[in-house]
Amino acid sequence: MRDLAGRPDLCAINTATLGHSAPIGAVIEAVAHQGFGGIAPWRRDLEGEDVAAVARRIRDAGLAVSGYCRSSAFPAATPEAARAAVEENRRALRDAATLGARCFVLVAGGLPPGSRDLAAARGQLRDGVGALLEEARQLGVTLALEPLHPVYAADRSCLCTLGEALDLCDALDPEARGGLGVAADVYHLWWDAALPRELRRAARHDRIAAFHVCDWLVPTRDVLLDRGMMGDGVIDIRGIRAAVEATGYDGLVEVEIFSAQDWWRRPMEETLATCAARLGSVC
After folding, report:
1. Where does the Xylose isomerase-like TIM barrel domain lie (predicted)?
2. Rounded to the nearest 10 degrees, how much is the dihedral formed by the CA atoms of 32, 37, 43, 45?
């Protein structure tokens, strides 16, 4: 396992960690100044921006783009809305390619309004990802399915375990041609007893496209917006990272923290410095 102590260059900052409160140019400069190796922008941070110009700014700062976050929901109440979601995600995929992103992170989406049909939502996810896969291969951007904790199944993601994500990868890419993988986020996967087995399974076809870290606080005041800084919660981050890197993953370790009541209220420089320190000491 890689030693992250004093090596922020092996790590990336997801812009959500900084609360989307500063212009993307300022975020790029701050992340680079702290010595991180990469950045993962959210689409909302690029609204109204020239994506090609942002890409140049990232490259000029010496940063890689570990991922581009995130897709719009695939399940929809009507076939027309489902097709529109695919086209919106296709445009975002092309932006990911312009940015030079390693992957485009796909968050499945939950049940459409009024629906109780989880199987149908999963079918729409499969169809939508399948519709994007060939273009993703041509663009050289991996579609990274990110399973979310089951608490989000109704409203954010009908894809809840790493096993489910890998099943979908195997169904859509049975010959492992590439272009499709998973984003493994400790916040969503740490609880799963099957995680070690599924990580070994992911290794067989080099499916891990991104690795995200933060911590699970006890108590958690809000399951969406109260993620912890690494080391402040109960997740065995170092143990999970060891298992991830044992699969051959050598990409950036990406910090993604949603913390409306704590870290989003602190100065950006403090948050970044703390991330750098904790990555080296507890990750």
Report:
1. 29-268
2. -10
Task: Name the strand (E) or helix (H) holding 200.
Answer: helix 195-204
Q: What is the pTM of this model?
A: 0.98
- C-beta contacts of 164-169 below 8 A and 24+ residues apart: 166/198, 166/201, 166/202, 166/207, 168/125, 168/126, 168/129, 169/145, 169/205, 169/207
Tens digits of per-residue pLDDT, 251-275? 999 999 999 999 999 999 999 999 9
Domain spans, the chain? 8-282
Q: Report whether the peptide linkage leading into residue 219 is cis, meaning its omega lies within 30 degrees of zero.
A: yes
Class of domain 8-282: alpha beta
| DSSP class of 227 | P
Distance CA 119, CA 126 (A): 11
Sign of CA dihedral 243, 245, 249, 251: positive
